[in-house]
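Example 3.2
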Amino acid sequence: MMEVIPNWHPMFVHFTVALFVAAWLFFMLSTLVATRHGALRTQWHGTGRWTLWLGALVTLGTLLAGWDAYNTVDHDTPSHEAMTEHRNWALVTTGVFALLAAWAAWRACAGRSEGLVFLVTLTLAIALLTATASRGGELVYRYGIGVVALPDTDAHDHAGHDHEHDGNDASANHHDHDMRDEIAPHDHGASAVDAPAHDHDHHDHAH
């Protein structure tokens, strides 16, 4: 498996994204749900906390695997610049989520909820996560980082083009043949009377 996937970063990062987004959803639900559903709000709030903490824990592995990938995968100068940009975004995003995880732990120990400022900060962190993930996707789909082989699209397009070209040739050849049948007697007569045989052959070759 690791012959196809050059490092563990792609596997860790999916858990990071999923857990943090799930945590944000649970916190949003626990805030927006009607107060009469107190038990449900408490469950969603607790689930949001644990999902956030688990996401922060998994992100340590994501960060380490990403650092290993940054220093080991094959790349050129343009892709190195893109890798560095992705790394910088990832470090900032990780720092923000680590702060949020610590914030949630502090409020949990105090027996209090996180509050509106926490929710707004978490929403901004999700935006950072989205931007970081987008840059990571560009490394693969734009620069080909970590890709073992690319599909031979030229061969595929060429085959499709040949198929259409053959069909067009057949139609064109049939049309040309009909046209030659219609004008051949006239041309032949004209060439026999008006022009020497050598000149007629030369004209056809040039045409």
